[in-house]
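W.,

You were right to be curious about this one. When I first looked at the sequence I had no strong expectations either way, so I just let the prediction run and decided to look at it fresh. Below is the sequence, 88 residues in total, followed by the output.
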Amino acid sequence: MNNRKYKPLQYAYAHRKKNKSNFKKISSHKINTMVMKKGLKFNTVKHFLKSNNIKLNTKLLLELSNTEVYSFNSLLYLTKLKEYNNLT
């Protein structure tokens, strides 16, 4: 009798975790496609952000790429410049 109360709560917890995982996969994929159009890799962009102490997580990067396209492109341009300077 008591199990009937708690079973939906267990499912809700599991589905919240699953939705979070799905959002991370989808957002990373969307950002990666936008970054690959510019000839970069998502990993290099994340490394550039971390090495320059820019605190942007995946959710903010996705929103930035959707709403502020010019800002996102300038961020990718800076990443490309940094990568080019490290190669030479």
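Here's what jumped out at me. The two ends are 70 Å apart (CA to CA). And, maybe more interesting for your project: Residues 38 and 77 are 9 Å apart (CA to CA).

Coffee later to discuss?

I.
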